[in-house]
Amino acid sequence: MYKDLRDWLIEVEKLGQLKRVNGAHWDVEMGALMQLVAEKYADKAPALLFDEVPGYPKGYRTLYGHFNTVERVALTLGMPQGLGKVGLVAAYQKKMASLKPVPYEYVSDGPILENVHTGDDINVLEFPVPQHHMRDNGRYIGTACEVLTQDPDEGWFNLGTYRSRAYDAKTVGCQITEGKHGRIHRDKMFERGLPMKVAIIVGQDPLLYMLGASPVSNGVSEYDIYGAIKGEPMKVVKGLFTGFPIPANAEIVIEGETTNGDVLEEGPFG
Length: 270
Description:
By secondary structure, the protein is of the alpha+beta class. The protein has 7 helices and 13 strands. It has helices spanning 5-14, 29-41, 70-77, 84-97, 181-191, 206-212, 222-230, and strands spanning 18-22, 47-51, 62-64, 105-106, 139-142, 145-150, 157-160, 164-168, 171-174, 196-202, 235-238, 245-247, 252-258. It has a 4-stranded antiparallel beta sheet. The radius of gyration is 18 Å and the shape is globular. The model has no long low-confidence stretch (mean pLDDT 96).
């Protein structure tokens, strides 16, 4: 299987399903282009990789449309090509029925630690955080992301795909729906009068993104299902602020905490 997001992009390009777009603005243009492409090509739409965003250095990229095609879903899951939608679902169900969780593994270093910003140096808007739609009331650094939280009683870690808005350079708001594991963890901490530490993972292996948006049993970490599908442990480093296990090869990780009563308005949306 592919190794990480960058390796995944190489494989998608080999499939002829990656379109590189240079010069699109973060303000609405990226979202509008992806919507036009998705409407025109439907389940054959390529993934769009935006670069050379006005006002940002080359290489500060955004990716849209990970899973528009069955071929990209199969690639992400490590399944054969050519199964079709029904065949892929059947093969995946069969594979999952016999999988045994593989715990994550700590390593001493990784690409995510090559550039670390703390304190006054933190600026999430140094990245081309997009506003997806003209009627949205904000820019979102986390949509195809993973929000990492820990159960304070049992100690296990959950990854959930919860949208994360960049309100300003140092403030990110994370909306977690009632009943989701991350929300349960948050409520447990708030009931004890404590803040909840959070790590938002942006630009991770697409398999983690897929698992974070999938139902996983309480007490089971998506990391362990990831390891089972990959056939080897997820390599993680210890978060410098949270102490959480963070993917060593993630592109961006934002560490912080959320405090009871510290809320901001969100929306409307397009």
